[in-house]
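Sample entry (257 residues):
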Amino acid sequence: MANSFSSQEKPLRLITIPISHYCEKARWALTKLKLPYIEEPHMPPFHQFATGQVGGKSAPVLITEVSAFTDSTDILRYLNEIAPDNAKLYPTNPELRQQVEELEDLFDEQLGSAIRRWGYFYVMDDYKFMQRRWCQGVPFIEGALFPVVFPWMRSVVRRGFNITPESAAQAYEQIKSIFEHVSELLSDGRTYLIGDGFSAADITFAALAAPAVLPPEHSMKLASLQELPPKMASEISAFRETPAGAYVLRLYRHRHN
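Predicted structure, serialized as tokens:
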């Protein structure tokens, strides 16, 4: 482990909503760099009590001895600064770095939100399903309060993320379009999305696309196809068959290598 890592006196703190794919992005970067951290999982809306104490609104939030980073991309950029030269998350070549950042922004701003809208449309009314997903690893009191807060939070999520049949259909088309773009990038036989090395672009795509392909090696216990509505399961099976979907599955299989 590099000196910048070994000098870390105590583990970093990562405040998460465990099932969030943006939290998975931060979790993957920390794991990739072998940085010690303690995850503090919370269920919506209780995560806001934890993140609000350090100036954040949503999760993830990474708390370091330097500062609190309240956005998944800011977290990756901070980790890149302290990473050794052979483990950078962004290329040192300015042109390649710009390409990585452009892809990361595309995935953050479009893919992540589209997958969230598409996924929640299918499962938000399944009480037991949502309870299993939202309550993974959270403090006992938060899980115990799920029956009280979920009806309200379901309405908040629907309004906040504009979850309707029409928006879900649009989100599905957006996911397909981005998967096609990534598949095209991979069509020349490249190993990674940009350049010759694993980067923030790969982490971001894999983490944010994970709910659409359900990799078995995911940090959290994801749903099985049998648990999902047939139409959603069929769409996931189709995503898995694309070069982009296969790429996500491959990255997850080799995540800890």
